[in-house]
Amino acid sequence: MPRDDTRMPHGRDDNRVMTRLTIRGRLTLWYAAVFAATGAAVLAAMYVLVRREFFTATDAVLASVTAAEGTLVPVPGTILEPSTGPAVALEAATTVARTDALRTIVLETGGVFVALAAVSLALCWLVAGRALRPLRNITDTAAALSHDTMDARIGLRGPRDEVRTLADTFDAMLDRLARAFQGQRLFVANASHELRTPLTIIRTAAEKALARPSRTEDEYRRALQTIAAAAARSDAMLTSLLQLARTQRGAALEPVDLAGAAAGAAASWPADAPPLHRDLAPAPCAADPAQLDLLLRNLLENAARHNVPGGAVWLATGGSWLCVENTGPVVDPADLPSLRRPFQRGGGRTAGSSGAGLGLAIAEAVVAAHGAAWTLVPRAGGGLSVTVTFPAG
User: What angle do CA 320, 326, 330 make, to 5 degrees?
Assistant: First the structure.
């Protein structure tokens, strides 16, 4: 006979039924099951104790009657034989009474148990609903969120239990997402603005060169030089954006000596850049070599770009830190937080300086990927001092 594979074991059927229930229904059943088990245990214990007391009392009465050899008064409903002794007659009467009493106890306690089970089921349903109310609030809040509406929060009050911890964690996650979305929108807007400028220059130079039927070779050369410079600016911008995106994927930490990494980055220092003074002491730490090199190159390029004629740059390492300082324009301490954001330059976004304003933003991303710490301090007389401290290796 072929086997019927469509049949399913009862255990799996029960599991499917349980999975179709809501968490409130499952909690209600579990609460009720626990109550039923404990109630049944209490009633069974009570029955055993009452039965034992009945037998103990009966044995004591029989012992007293036998010792006294008294005359038994017939109990209504019992028939005593003339030859029946007082102890035997009393034992028969108490056995009947005891059996009736135990039967009554079982029936009455069983009825009370059924009633309490029904009441407990209703109460467990209410208690489960109240306990799960914060979870419903979390679900409703999550359902109301979108990319443009990230201001909804649960704001659960009450004792700091597991549900309160979950709600607070969910609110903290929403805060981080809101900041990330806001930063993403700002980044896209700034990137669009920055990339539009060289494209506009390219289009203007090309249209100007094509406006007349003929132009001199020098005019075409100047137009092409303008287009090449704008294209180079766009290429540098896209390269910086790609570097910034790569640093946000995390870092693969390994033992690194900051002094060796700094010496490697300083080896490619341009000849036409301000003088670079080095003080490189051994500085073992845990870092991603590729991202560390990216950090050093951006800090050094930033120090060289935002400098003054006759200025200088200093590079130092020690402990598990590195420091890059430069001379340059005076920096207002109130502008330091904004310099860490993308497309921000000293003196504001409209400040006349080369570069896309992504150097310190890339450094910020590298520091965050390493769990490191860094400080920006204005130097007396102008310029910046940037110190990055990595986890010890």
Answer: 125
Contact yes or no for 36/117 (Cβ under 8 A):
yes
Q: How far apart are the first and last CA of the chain?
A: 70
pLDDT surpassing 70 at residue 38: yes
Residue 288 has a CB neighbour count (10 Å cut-off) of 19
CATH assignment of 150-247, among 1.10.10.10, 3.50.50.60, 1.10.287.130, 3.90.660.10: 1.10.287.130
CA distance 192 to 179: 20
Strand partners, 286: 255
Would you say how long the chain is, in residues?
Answer: 393
pLDDT in tens, 141-193: 777 776 566 777 777 777 777 777 878 888 888 888 877 776 677 667 666 76
Give tens-digit pLDDT for 244-269: 666 666 667 889 999 999 998 898 88
Task: State the Cα angle at 42 between 36 and 47, rounded to 5°.
Answer: 120
Q: 0.85 cut: is pTM over it? A: no
3-state SS assignment for residue 53 = helix
To which H or E segment does residue 327 belong? none
**Short-list 203, 196, 263, 194, CA closest to 227:** 203
Lowest-confidence region among 6-10, 176-180, 225-229, 266-270: 6-10
Domain 252-389, what fold?
A: Heat Shock Protein 90 (3.30.565)
d(CA 33, CA 117): 9
